């Protein structure tokens, strides 16, 4: 009898353990008092961004501030004139969606960014931001503000909050909002069974809403199988950060180090993102990323249930692009593709006062600029903004939105925002198309030979990888910023807060051990990649067709000594990954102690750590690791700003940055190791969000 009781308690304890996300201890670093003040001011503008709080510190400052009267406080007066010119003729109104992909809205957002950027000191910047916080469209303000914080010299190192806390409505499905708004309006769950059935639980001073990822209603094909990945808040936040660091419209001169490599960063970013996505497709049985044509119906439908002031456009399967209506756009896309191939065949790009050698590997920067149609690719030859951008046009066509009514009124699609683009499967098909043009360019480059790849005197004898295990665990994120409060509530600060609880893919930490024999001494770079072992049909992959499908997991420098060297790398130290952001609520608590979280302040551009491994299967899914060692040459100082991407003098992604010759990839300083990824625990995320779990949870908290 006793054992039964003990077992029952144990079962409850276990259930409890898996119910609530574990408490995390944040890594922090100490900061000076004036940094704390600055950080606090910055964060406060992010609180309830869709409401103007007349009691808040920023309100009076922003309400009274006059940018034009302070024109001397900006280091670039033209930027003030430009902004003011637009402001006088009318800006995007409040309470409508803002998208950077619409021309007039973009012009305004960029002008706003410029006044933020050219404010001569922090005080002026703050006043300008407070002004915009009070008067400008919510999304437009946040957009320009984020980018300014990342790029201003005097806000380097400040912590910017995770986009899913700032715009939670773009990271959650609308049924969650029904539940939250109802809970708020009825001041709790009206009947206990409503809470149980709908997954709404009160825990202390917060409401927890369990949320499923989208299913087959949203993804009519099999794509719903990986919605836990495409809708992962960390992944979508990552894409938003990438854009904030490298906005396509930004003049390369504003960002040191960017100009020479932004096109290369562009290629590398999308290549890695798609390679990672492909690995996830493989273990879920989805296979290759499908191709599509501009001239045939778009097979992949997408019906998001996302609301951003208004509901998102739903694209049916076998969507017929309205060819006549979009003839200009389709012509642009077609010409863009053909122009590129023509220049490529000729080996030179000659236009806009440039003559680019398309047989040179360094021209990757140009090729990236061309496909991104960013502010650097025309050189300084003026051409309005990126009116003729392939990306922007493709997003418009594939988004399937009706034609906009006027310069401000449009029906939003997932592709209109960096926060939601990764949810739509067509996104990956579109970038896969673009990457194929890069590959065409790369096919003209001389593949690396033995001379380049070889590392004299260094031999990797063995690579050992721990058992690789993925699992789902709950993660809470604060969505209170999209809940509306009365003046009294805001004043009293006495109100519950709201979090969404979702199971997210995670993995057990693992170690990679590299056994190296060396006849030389010196600093060596080690890189660890993960790639497919078999293609979607089950055939062993050939590296010559798959070099672009390898994901870079780690980069580090190790001092080799003569003789045997044993190098251990723990996955938690992998170079390209960061922890989840610390919730704003907790940052506000850390500040009075003179601390800020380390991870978010320095590595905002890195990939979410939870997503290192693609989801495994019960019986194990095969992949392979590839390890290479090569002599270390540090990157030039001027590339400091982009060091989240790489930190030596090789091209990003080396040696998989160009077509590979199988025979040369058998050097002693390289090693391919077969690995298997297992998945433990519940296999499907929706199973976590059923009353079975939430009821249990209720029972436990009552005791
Ligand atoms: C999640 O989906 C499952 C399966 O459809 C359903 O039983 C459950 O109630 C859903 N949970 C929530 C919180 O919506």
Total number of domains: 4
Which ligands, by name, code or SMILES, are bound?
Answer: 2-acetamido-2-deoxy-beta-D-glucopyranose
Q: What does the largest sheet look like? A: 8 strands, mixed
Average pLDDT figure: 91
**What level of helicity do the residues show?**
25-40%
Overall description:
Residues 162-438 form the Hemocyanin middle domain. Residues 35-157 form the Hemocyanin N-terminal domain. The chain has 703 residues and is of the alpha+beta class. The chain folds into four domains: 1-28 and 578-610, no CATH class; 31-158, Hemocyanin, N-terminal domain, CATH 1.20.1370; 226-442, di-copper center containing domain from catechol oxidase; 446-467 and 508-574 and 612-703, Sandwich (Immunoglobulin-like), CATH 2.60.40. 36% of the residues lie in helices and 17% in strands. The protein has an eight-stranded mixed beta sheet, sandwiched between helices. A three-stranded antiparallel beta sheet has the order 8-11-14, with no helix packed on it. A hairpin with a 2-residue loop joins strand 6 and strand 7. Helix 3 (57-64) packs across helix 6 (122-135), helix 4 (77-89) packs antiparallel against helix 5 and helix 13 crosses helix 17. The longest helix is centred in the middle third of the chain and has 26 residues, at 258-283. It is globular, with a radius of gyration of 26 Å. The two termini are 22 Å apart. The model is unreliable at 1-18 and 698-703 (pLDDT under 50). Bound molecules: 2-acetamido-2-deoxy-beta-D-glucopyranose. 2-acetamido-2-deoxy-beta-D-glucopyranose binds next to loops.
